[in-house]
Design brief:
Number of helices: 2
Strand content: under 5%
Order of helices and strands: HH
Oligomer: single chain
Number of domains: 1
Distance between the termini: 56 Å
Amino acid sequence: MAAPSRPPDPSPEGDWADQAADTVVRVVDTVREKTTGQLLTAARAIVYGIIGVFAGLVALIVLVIALIRMLDVYLPGDVWSAYLLLGVVFSAGGLIVWRRRYAPEVP
């Protein structure tokens, strides 16, 4: 926060009350920036991260719904064929991830 500029003081010593007040304000602003500024940045990162995760989840659900509808139009049979194809694809992907769940052992 920028302090308003003051006209120069004609006396050589200046006004000690103004200098003391400026020093206190400067110290308080520095402490606030070092503590609250970092906390606000972390809080914003957490909030935007949660919003991003939920937006990604909604986009994934909408994508799966659109994929089922598209497959239902192009695959022969009823909607079960689209469910079957996507079920096989997702099951294969899940099995691949499941097999890689453990980190390799380090000798």
